[in-house]
Design goal:
The complex is a heterodimer of chains A (303) and B (247). By secondary structure, chain A is an all-alpha fold. Chain A contains eleven helices and two strands. Classes of the chains: A mainly alpha (303), B alpha/beta (247).
């Protein structure tokens, strides 16, 4: 394998993994496949675009690139604000839609169909507000730096990889070492018993929505930094996200990131072997193979 | 019984469908320090009755009072905060969590300074659990799981503990251990409601028994009295009436 192909795959995979962590959390705790998660990624990217643009207009110094990176301080500040806004948006969608369906004890298929509706609405709103024209956080060009062994990567790409790893470790520690993480694991296993031991299940569900949306916003910002910002960017990521979450094992945070990296590297390899037009098929093939051979995924437990 | 009533239901009507109540107007009271067993044939509404008290089954009429507090409409996560603990018959532990996390997840509703002390006390009460704190609950035997479920319910020092068929699926030896443990918990001051199919074992540890039939409270009395009642013995304890021929 060409080392550069591996590097490209890892960088793309880190973004997929970040989004897949959000998918795996919402899937295991809210108990349905949320197809609106991809559009939450897009909203996170656009929230950051709008805020960074406003900050840049008000304080032009914030647009000056930070060190080797392509963006100024406006973007990290905007990304932080975007995580908050995206969390609020997720709570709004839950209050308007999913909470009402839960109150009616709706079946999983109704929740999934509702998430399709939410996805379409969110995407259409983005197109209405921002148009479908691609946008960028910065027009600065970056030169890929040699890392040794024939591998090159831009500082933005290395930052994406590093932030993804840090966030996955942080989410893993949150789940395994904290009281709220314990409650989330308990709710993911048995909602009724969770209530009986005193866990406020509705609060846990709200926290999961917010956490998923925060991770989606970060994934969206990095996708925007490394590629471009479009209303369909989240939709295009959706299949790789689900493939990564299922490959890693639903409920496993490290599994989702590992699955994302495998998907990313596989896609990069496929581009080199069978051509870029087959890139999207890779996730689909991996998803089918995992569901047939090991439906619990690499890190999941068989029921 | 002259001690204070710690839990009382009045005209409780409950069931999953409003038009099809399973519990049909039960007046019941549990006194402080009592261990009451709820008996009855299959489909009598025993489990539904205690689940309705615990907040797991919709209540359509009537009230549940926990001491002076009306807890009828409170969800289960609020009832435990008022001292009402419920141990379900099945899936009563978090199988993917360790023993310690099973206890911690229940202790999280306590003030921080109290959590570790309560867990230490629970480990002292259940030394078998203390020996394997990092083991996943799913790896435990049926009896150990039941003990863990009871231990977890006791973490918050409830005033009322309700158990739905704790002997289900356990060997007679383990059942005896579980019931002996329940008796000692009761003697320590926890009032207990026990739903049981294992009538003889339950009556042996209970102070009082109530019998439900078709969602209504049909008989009530001391455990000893019910054991000696020939009709009850025939209907629910499997005893044969004396049918010796007379000349």
């Amino acid at each position: 394998m060409n080392p550069q192909t591996l590097m490209d795959g890892l960088i793309a995979g880190s973004m997929i993994g970040l989004g897949a962590v959000g998918i795996t959390l919402t899937y295991s705790i809210l108990r349905f496949a949320n197809f609106a998660h991809g559009d939450m990624i897009s909203w996170g990217a656009y929230f950051a675009l709008a805020i960074a643009g406003a900050l840049g207009a008000a304080f032009s110094g914030l647009l000056t690139p930070i060190g080797p990176f392509s963006f100024g301080w406006a973007l990290p500040i905007a990304a932080l604000a975007a995580t908050v806004l995206n969390g609020g948006l997720a709570l709004l969608v839950d209050a308007l839609l999913f909470k009402r369906l839960r109150a009616r004890n709706s079946t999983v298929i109704i929740m999934v169909m509702a998430s399709f509706g939410a996805a379409l609405t969110l995407r259409s709103l983005l197109e209405f507000i921002f148009t479908s024209k691609p946008a960028y956080y910065t027009n600065a060009l970056q030169i890929a730096l040699p890392l040794g062994g024939g591998i090159r990567a831009t500082p933005d790409q290395m930052l994406s990889l590093a932030v993804s790893v840090v966030i996955v470790i942080a989410v893993h520690l949150l789940l395994s070492r904290t009281a709220i993480g314990r409650s989330m694991r308990a709710v993911s296993e048995n909602v009724q018993l969770s209530g009986l031991v005193g866990i406020r299940v509705r609060r846990v569900i709200r926290i999961v929505w917010v956490l998923g949306a925060v991770l989606a916003a970060i994934a969206g910002v990095f996708a925007g930094v490394l590629v471009q910002i479009r209303p369909e960017m989240g939709l295009d990521l959706l299949l790789p996200l689900f493939a990564a979450a299922i490959l890693g094992g639903i409920g496993s945070v490290p599994g989702a990131m590992f699955g994302g990296l495998i998907i990313g590297v596989s896609e990069a390899l496929a581009v080199g072997v069978v051509g870029a037009q087959w890139r999207a098929a890779v996730s689909f093939v991996i998803l089918i193979v995992v569901l047939l051979v090991r439906p619990q995924g690499l890190f999941g437990r068989a029921e | 019984m002259t001690s204070a009533i710690v839990l009382a239901t009045s005209g409780l009507v409950a069931g999953y469908e409003r038009d099809l109540p399973i519990v049909r107007g039960i007046d019941f009271s549990l006194h402080a320090g009592e261990l009451v067993v709820i008996l009855g044939p299959n489909g009598a509404g025993k489990s539904t009755f205690v689940k309705a008290i615990a907040g797991l089954v919709p209540v359509h009429a009537g009230t549940t009072m926990l001491g002076e507090i009306d807890v009828t409409a409170l969800p289960a996560d609020e009832k435990i905060r008022h001292g009402l603990a419920f141990v379900p018959q099945t899936e009563n532990v978090f199988a993917t969590l360790s023993i310690k996390d099973n206890l911690l997840v229940a202790a999280d509703i306590l003030p921080k300074d109290l959590r570790n002390r309560r867990i230490a006390e629970i480990y002292a009460m259940f030394p078998d659990l203390a020996d394997r704190t990092s083991r996943r609950a799913g790896q435990l035997s049926g009896g150990q799981r039941q003990m863990l479920a009871i231990a977890r319910a006791l973490i918050v020092e409830p005033s009322v503990l309700i158990l739905d068929e704790p002997s289900a699926g356990l060997s007679p030896k383990i059942v005896a251990e579980v019931f002996a443990r329940l008796r000692s918990i009761n003697r320590a001051g926890v009032s207990i409601i026990l739903v049981e199919q294992n009538v003889k074992a339950a009556l042996a540890v209970a102070d009082r028994a109530v019998i439900l039939v078709e969602g209504r409270l049909r008989h009530e009395g001391t455990a000893a009295g019910l054991t000696e009642d020939p009709i009850i013995a025939e209907l629910y304890l499997g005893a044969r009436p004396n049918r010796a021929l007379t000349p």
